Design the sequence.
């Protein structure tokens, strides 16, 4: 039987970065002997999940947990160290850049900072035309112009402004232009890396509405990377929680917010400030977040977990499916010793 | 509880080549000892400038144009640099957004803490270190004696912000101004820092002015808030009642725009347009171009911040004060929508 790989599937993805520098930087003396030491940041470790067509899968986690690296590796911006990525059941992680071309038009990305992600020396029209003429070389100039106007109207930027430069727009409008750029080639799948984190609340609502509308109209699939749990609660179909490069919980949205299983997810959810309520007691995590350079052995969360025992120090927990549809990687949940 | 701070009709301007720009416009509020207040608004609303101007941290071309700042019975506007220095960093201290920018990377934590104490009083190094250790313990930094000899890069982001707080506490201030103290931190760390600030304020009857754009944080930490828009306070009063039942159309829009107040997947409430830049503030109520209730009077007359009958809050809105006739509500907004549609359609 063929596996259900949905629209996009990631299997045992690993991405490490070597930060040890050149050979001379790696050499050092230890007790009179020359040794060579390499330092790697273990950004993504053994992550697997499947995204179904039409859904919004959100990846949440704190800074440095590897969520952006995961997004960029999926998009092919970083080559994975090991593991496989499938798009519509076709393996895409080992393709040459030429073979990758048809997938590039189907998968697009929206970045966090609309100030950094638009070329300041290109007009909006030039920015929007580029992906279209690149992927469809025989399109007539008239058709290209039409398409630019059409997409600009869809994202709520008046097409008359196409001749202007990014600095003439506000942050919210720039993010609309970034979204327009991603929509130009009519993609199926969009990776949005913190698309509203740099925006004010009232503008954030405008952009989230725009993204939800585009999804409804075009049947888009989103991989949504964010640290904002209230945004996640609003837009996601399913939510994946990451900690130190590993997936600790993956669950349908309602299930995750109603009954979080993993101790880290619980702590994270209890830390969200709530409107109109007095300060709630939140679950206090002891200790500091370890660096992804020196990953703890066993479960990466054991140093801060109140349920951690001997097994958690030794054995890496696997992501296991519960009857509720939640996937969770925790020995304590599995053994039922996570009750306070 | 005695009064700690009374700001009255504060106006801060920035001189431009020919004209000037009003960043803070006629702002008034007061704070009692041990009270926690939130100054809320979107970027560019003037909340940080308000906070900075309290301790004269406004550098040229900015200046306090009019108004008075009464702190512990003393007028702060018009003090000389020498006089304000005895209050700034001593009776009133400040916590900034990014702890890595606030701390000096080439000095140990201990050096920076002792330096602060020596700047504000005649104290021996040994005594100053003892105070520093005491304050580090207060912000829950483990083994403070050892940590005192370390540099900022040896601490995590949350730890650094704790150190910044410890430095702010050194001189036992009566008021702390915290400008987005947790914006650069993760949620779990943010929750811990906020807990800490609340405990510290309660413990030593310290006043807190929390400047932030995050309504969630404000509603958990503060007792009262002032909502700013384009340099003015548009609504102020007890936090709980304003968040749960805002009066001003802008505050209403802000609260409704936050995901979590409506069912998942539904369109979020959005305030059309964006905040005007300070160089081009609309006539009348500065919110009127974005307000769905705007009537004729809103486009010409500036509303005053006035108490709302039957509530404890103050609101600057013609509709709430009743000056906008019910039949006129929304007339200007409707007109604007029609002209906007007419302009957009190509001829």
Sequence:
């Amino acid at each position: 039987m063929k596996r259900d790989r949905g629209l996009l599937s990631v299997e045992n993805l690993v991405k490490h970065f070597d930060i040890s520098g050149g050979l001379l930087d790696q050499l050092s003396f230890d007790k009179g002997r020359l040794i060579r030491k390499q330092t790697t940041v273990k950004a993504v470790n053994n992550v697997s999940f499947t995204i179904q067509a039409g859904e919004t899968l959100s990846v949440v986690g704190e800074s440095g947990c590897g969520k952006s690296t995961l997004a960029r590796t999926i998009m092919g911006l970083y080559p994975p160290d090991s593991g496989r990525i499938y798009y519509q059941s076709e393996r895409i992680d080992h393709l040459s850049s030429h073979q990758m071309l048809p997938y590039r038009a189907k998968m697009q990305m929206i970045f966090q900072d609309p100030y950094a992600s638009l070329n300041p020396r290109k007009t909006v029209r030039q920015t929007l035309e580029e992906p279209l003429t690149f992927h469809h070389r025989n399109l007539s100039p008239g058709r290209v112009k039409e398409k630019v106007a059409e997409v600009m109207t869809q994202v709520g930027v008046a097409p008359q402004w196409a001749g202007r430069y990014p600095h003439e727009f506000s942050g919210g409008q720039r993010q609309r232009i970034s979204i327009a750029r991603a929509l130009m080639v009519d993609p199926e799948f969009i990776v949005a890396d913190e698309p509203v984190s740099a925006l004010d609340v009232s503008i954030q609502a405008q952009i989230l509405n725009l993204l939800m509308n585009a999804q409804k109209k075009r049947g888009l699939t989103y991989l949504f990377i964010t640290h904002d749990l209230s945004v996640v609660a609003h837009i996601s179909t399913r939510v994946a929680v990451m900690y130190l490069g590993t997936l600790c919980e993956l669950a349908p949205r309602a299930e995750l917010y109603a009954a979080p299983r993993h101790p880290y997810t619980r702590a994270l959810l209890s830390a969200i400030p709530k409107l109109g309520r007095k300060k709630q007691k939140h679950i206090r995590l002891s200790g500091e977040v370890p660096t992804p350079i020196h990953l703890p052995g066993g479960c990466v969360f054991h140093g801060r977990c109140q349920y951690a025992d001997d097994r958690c120090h030794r054995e890496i927990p696997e992501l296991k499916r519960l009857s509720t549809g939640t996937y969770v990687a925790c020995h304590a949940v599995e053994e039922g010793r996570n009750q306070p | 509880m005695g009064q700690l701070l009374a700001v009255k009709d504060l106006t801060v301007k920035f001189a431009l080549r020919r004209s000037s720009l009003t960043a803070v416009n006629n702002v008034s509020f007061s704070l009692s000892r041990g009270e926690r207040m939130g100054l809320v608004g979107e970027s560019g609303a003037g909340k940080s400038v308000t906070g900075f101007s309290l301790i004269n941290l406004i550098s040229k071309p900015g200046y306090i144009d009019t108004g008075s700042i009464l702190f512990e019975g003393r007028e702060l506007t018009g003090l000389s640099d020498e006089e304000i220095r005895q209050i700034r960093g001593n009776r009133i201290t400040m916590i900034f957004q990014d702890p890595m920018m606030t701390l000096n990377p080439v000095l140990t934590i201990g050096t920076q803490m002792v330096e602060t104490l020596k700047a504000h009083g005649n104290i021996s190094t040994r005594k100053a270190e003892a105070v520093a250790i005491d304050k580090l313990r207060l912000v829950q930094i483990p083994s403070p004696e050892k940590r005192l000899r370390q540099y900022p890069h040896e601490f995590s982001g949350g730890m650094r912000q704790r150190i910044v707080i410890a430095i702010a506490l050194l001189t036992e201030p009566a008021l702390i101004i915290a400008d987005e103290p947790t914006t650069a931190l993760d949620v779990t760390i943010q929750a811990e820092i906020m807990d800490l600030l609340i405990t510290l304020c309660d413990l030593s009857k310290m006043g807190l002015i929390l400047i932030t754009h995050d309504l969630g944080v404000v509603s958990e930490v503060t007792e009262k808030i002032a909502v700013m828009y384009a340099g003015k306070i548009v609504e102020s009063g007890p936090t709980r009642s304003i968040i749960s039942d805002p009066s001003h159309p802008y505050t209403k829009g802000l609260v409704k725009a936050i995901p979590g107040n409506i069912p998942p997947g539904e369109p979020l409430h959005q305030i059309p347009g964006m905040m005007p830049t300070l160089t081009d503030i609309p006539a009348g109520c500065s919110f009127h171009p974005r307000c769905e209730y705007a009537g004729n009077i809103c486009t010409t007359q500036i509303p005053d911040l006035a108490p709302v009958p039957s509530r404890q809050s103050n609101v600057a809105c013609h509709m709430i004060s009743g000056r906008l006739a019910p039949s006129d509500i929304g007339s200007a907004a409707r007109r604007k929508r029609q002209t906007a549609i007419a302009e957009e359609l190509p001829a």
Remarks:
- The mean pLDDT of chain A is 89.
- Chain A touches chain B at residues 62-63, 158, 170, 172, 200-206, 208-209, 212-213, 227, 229-231, 233-236, 253-254, 267-268, 270-280, 282, 284-285, 288-289 (CB under 8 Å).
